[in-house]
Amino acid sequence: MTNAASSSTSFVSYDAECPFPIQNLPYGVFSTTANPSPRPGVAIGDLILDLDALSRSSHFASSPIPADVFQHANLDKLAAREPAEWAAFRSYLTTLLSSNSPLKDAADKDTLFVPRTASSTQMHMPVRIGDYTDFYASFEHAYNAGVLIRGKENAMQPNWRHLPVGYHGRASSVVVSGTPIRRPVGQILDKVGDTQPIWAPCRRLDYELEIGFIYGGAATKLGERLTPTEAREHIFGLVLMNDWSARDIQTWEYVPLGPFLSKNFGTTISPWIVQPAALDPFKTAKYVQEPAVLPYLQDDEGFGFDVPLTLAVRPENAKEYSRIATSNMKHSYWTYAQMIAHHSSTGAPINPSDMMGSGTLSGPGVDGNPNDDALGSLLERSRLGRQPFELNADRKDMTWLRDGDSIKIEGVVKTKDGYSIGFGECEGTVLPAVLPAA
Amino acid sequence: MTNAASSSTSFVSYDAECPFPIQNLPYGVFSTTANPSPRPGVAIGDLILDLDALSRSSHFASSPIPADVFQHANLDKLAAREPAEWAAFRSYLTTLLSSNSPLKDAADKDTLFVPRTASSTQMHMPVRIGDYTDFYASFEHAYNAGVLIRGKENAMQPNWRHLPVGYHGRASSVVVSGTPIRRPVGQILDKVGDTQPIWAPCRRLDYELEIGFIYGGAATKLGERLTPTEAREHIFGLVLMNDWSARDIQTWEYVPLGPFLSKNFGTTISPWIVQPAALDPFKTAKYVQEPAVLPYLQDDEGFGFDVPLTLAVRPENAKEYSRIATSNMKHSYWTYAQMIAHHSSTGAPINPSDMMGSGTLSGPGVDGNPNDDALGSLLERSRLGRQPFELNADRKDMTWLRDGDSIKIEGVVKTKDGYSIGFGECEGTVLPAVLPAA
Prior knowledge:
The first copy, chain A, is 16% helix and 25% strand. By secondary structure, chain A is of the alpha+beta class. In chain A, strand 2 and strand 3 form a beta hairpin. Chain A is globular.
């Protein structure tokens, strides 16, 4: 199917740079000024195919999934269907949107599409996340952070190569791209060596360039484990993710139970859920895992995706974004399937629409030093704030995020067949902290 | 209102030991063999008043809350109402169930009550928890654990007295009392000093005696903070909680991001949500907090509840439970209101039906040593497994939990007015680990 699909063309026109050709077909939830009810859609070119409207039309007759799945304010019902149904629906959509589809000349065609980028179109959270977990799966990020905090000799913790280190996050503060992020106020130490904290706006506000992946299909029951092979089938889709982090709050609070408020004030995801099938052409070898992992984590068929990810900052009042980093989805030591399998291994149920994050994805170093252009966090890029760097001509001393900074993560890859597959944008702007009135 | 209510009597009869008199009125979700749909109810004596059935009867005419709130599979809709409505509904129920209520002789009375303890009655999760957070709020527990891990000099971490340390947990594995808990299989170190983990059934399975509290009322918005005074109004109710813990998995996995799989394989709560109003007569002074906390955490009106909590173990095939610990709700350094206020302080939304846990509640030591009868975990009771203790005549070498052990937490308090207020039971039995077929 991959080959057939890769040569498909659609009656919807778009150019070779467009991240949403017929080979992509990501799902999202949108509303319009004319119809403010959030509803599922699929992106193609500069349009959104309204799946709610489609499900009420004659064109839905050959759908392998019932209409009520799409007559819902988010994609939860679709995420809960069986993976085989996702594949069948993807095939149905590909046929429906292809160049020779009857839909091309249907009388009701215009009622089924809305403009994707118009100001009259608004994107919403694609699923209602039940539980959200963040991993720490990039070797390079863990190594870079370890060197900065503990030095080269002790950079990697003893457990890191044996299991995908992760922690539970807060689902309630996962927000869709475009949602402003308020600089948090929290307990920090004013000066090194202080023992009495102050309560103040975060001074070390950071981003983390990540991939989020959304579980789907049947829930696992209490006590049920998945193998990596089983787990892989449950990946409903992937999104770009910015795990905003307050480093100074983190440093003070995280002993001994891990990050808490420093990581839960906002996590931004891109609105379009890209199906793994769309990324098939970009499969690449997974990391060599040394020492060998325990049997329950072995994932011989595992792979990565070779998809470049970029992160750029636009200071308030600046016209342009300045790129800080170019990383890649492939910079994950652990496969998504291994992360899910590990997560299930003690038996906590995983439910459809649960989301997991990869952790910051940073690229390999050069000659034993970090590659400054491939670092997914400011913690790494500014060496814990000790090495200001030049963002652009107007900001030659960048360390941490400033109020008004907009962060944009993008992920797009071109094929030799002449099309592009992308995630769209994951964007958020830092609002100034609010302190109580004196 | 408290005084009037404390002298109330009901037409439902129960004795002075019954934890569910008319002064309590906890909410739960139940089903019966005759009607297997889970629905809200309120416990009184040995009966459950079926709130779904009540909402469809003439007796509901004077209810201050609409009927559809109770025609639902759980208490989420009630938790989302305003606190003033909870109070009004409590008052309505008190009148409805009082000795001189017309309900006493109503023709349809028998259709509104079901037996609470009959085998035909089953309890379910009372709310659908969105996000679950566990704190570490007992000074004695933190101190005891700190002494065992780091020694007396460094027992308390620098941040502990400045903020309620907490971490995000997994909502999907919070289960109602009576649900068996499978011993987890996970990565552990076989021997001290090993660097290569094995994958094996947990050998250091523990309980944690806690109180869970459920948030209700309006959700906080992204970026919104609550003061402790505001937060207190949002406590919909309290439950007993057992935070099952795998200490060996925890020790290996928790660096640097905190407990993950070691704490997410099962968290048991009691089925009855006790309203704070029912605990009013048991208010007691809160801990003296030294040094003074930062202004956003100041809770001058804060208090604790003086309610004894017991924990007992019944080994497989044993007839009786053997009590291990008698702790108390009051053994929390931080008030629930402070925990919620801290949680909201960086702006992560808190939604109705979200649950937070107090952390293990252990009582004060004696002469600088732990009080063995007041310790809320086996980690403390067995000194990390180094000091086996006598549970009963058949088990003189207790350290960690064994397969088949049932753990029961209870909380009940008697007043001088001659009635008791209790939570009922929080019970769970350890099932043996399951390894994949060879």
